[in-house]
Amino acid sequence: MTMPGNAFCRLGRFAPALRTAGVAFAAVITLLCLAPQPGAAQSETPAHRSYITPFPNGDRYRIVVLGDSLGDGLWEGLYRAFDEDATIDFIKRSKSGTGLARDDRYDWDAELDKILKEESYQVAVVMFGVNDSQAIKHDGKWLKVGSEEWRQVYGAQVETFIKKLRAANVATYWVGLPVMRSPDQTGNAEQLNDVYREKAFINGAKYIDTFGGFVDESGRYSAYGPDMSGQSKRLRADDGVHFTMRGYLKLAHFVEQEMRKDLTLAKEERNIPLAGDEGEQAKVLDRFSAAKPAPVQQEPEAAEAEDTADEDVANEDGDDVQENQVGEVSVVMPTLTDTTLQALQSAPQESNSATTEPEVITTELPGGYTAVATISAVTDLSLASSRPQLPLSQRPYYKVLIRGEQLDPKSGRADDFTWPPG
User: Does the chain have fewer CB atoms within 10 Å around its N or its C terminus?
Assistant: First the structure.
């Protein structure tokens, strides 16, 4: 006799009472329980923390809405709720007057294959049940709603529907039915919700409970209730099943809450740190801060003595450097000797050259790190309008940003106010 894996797992609870039959029996049950169950895990789905994939095609999430007439109204509420998000597209593929109970009227199993083949989607929102509160004909006999045979047949159809979506790596939100005005319809809705909740849990979909969202203080059906603005408005249609537009907005809010959390998590997962995790970055920063010497406070007299222009000083390597004071900017440059000047004059120079070879500077940092920097005239923003050898005090950005001078306007430019215009 063969038994499904989950049946063995249920028997595993009684393993202590069966120890007299041998330890080997308990070991076999344990191995069977640990084995992956069919349909319980989606091997095709990439491993990531968020329920919704972080990397949709074209950086846009395509969300398909499937279902019956309630699915039509749910789509209207959803695209209005996410109207400000330009990265989300809601596609309505629901069809009024259909369901999963009667495939002779509309075959949703075949239609879903067609939908998933034609386009790619990252999220699916599903809402059925308006037309499924009816007996199902199976093997020549009719199965009453709520019976065990009905649950098996209808549940298999729901399970197949979810499995196809999850196999296509589509995050699935199955929306449960709300309370109905008719007691019989309410009872049937509860039976359908039990099937939806169970099959969604087993097959990796998220069940959205809406049953208690449209009741009064006594837990009974109410056509009125607070809308999204908090005011008491009419939310249900005259048939006691469908909704007004305000009602569909509130119905969509149940899905919106769960979906926004998953979308936020998916977008956060896209932020991949390039410098290691926070712990590794903290180690590096602590090492630098510990090795950095404390700043030395200068005496006022010493600071004034050093604030001189055109003064020759020596660097750490013993080379002579010259410090020039241009306004409030202190410029340090090497002192040019006669030998250096002769070498520069004899070196070939390109005419009208606007670029120079960059100078590479390396500095050894604590912990075995090396800082590398390049200094080049290409990075000088004034090169676009001045000569490379223009003195610092004559460059436009120094005149405007340091001295606060106003540049002379050029003819035809926006700041040229001469009249008549040239």
Answer: N
Do residues 53 and 122 make contact, with C-beta atoms less than 8 angstroms apart? Answer: yes
The C-alpha atoms of residue 49 and residue 80 are separated, in whole angstroms, by 28
From the number of C-beta atoms within 10 Å of its C-beta (0-12, 13-18, 19+), residue 199 rates as: buried
Residues forming beta bridges with residue 384, ordered by sequence position: none
- Which amino acid is residue 11, in one-letter code? L
| Cα 201 from chain centre | 24
pLDDT digits (tens, 9 = 90+) for 153-182: 999 999 999 999 999 999 999 999 999 999
DSSP state of 215: B
What is the Cα–Cα distance from 180 to 214, expressed in whole angstroms?
9
Across 165-281, where does the E strand assignment appear?
A: 171-175, 206-208, 224-226, 232-234
| Residue 386 CA to its chain's centroid (Å) | 46
Q: Return the closest-CA partner of residue 170 out of 131, 215, 115.
A: 115
Picking from 45, 22, 38, 198, the residue whose alpha carbon sits closest to that of residue 122 is 45
What is the per-residue pLDDT across 361-384, written as a single tens digit (0 to 9) for each? 666 666 666 666 655 554 444 444
In 10 A of CB 135, how many CB atoms?
13
CA distance 215 to 224: 9
Q: Is 157 helix (H, G, I), strand (E, B) or coil?
A: helix
* Extended beta strands in 298-404, E state: 311-314, 320-326, 329-334, 359-365, 369-375
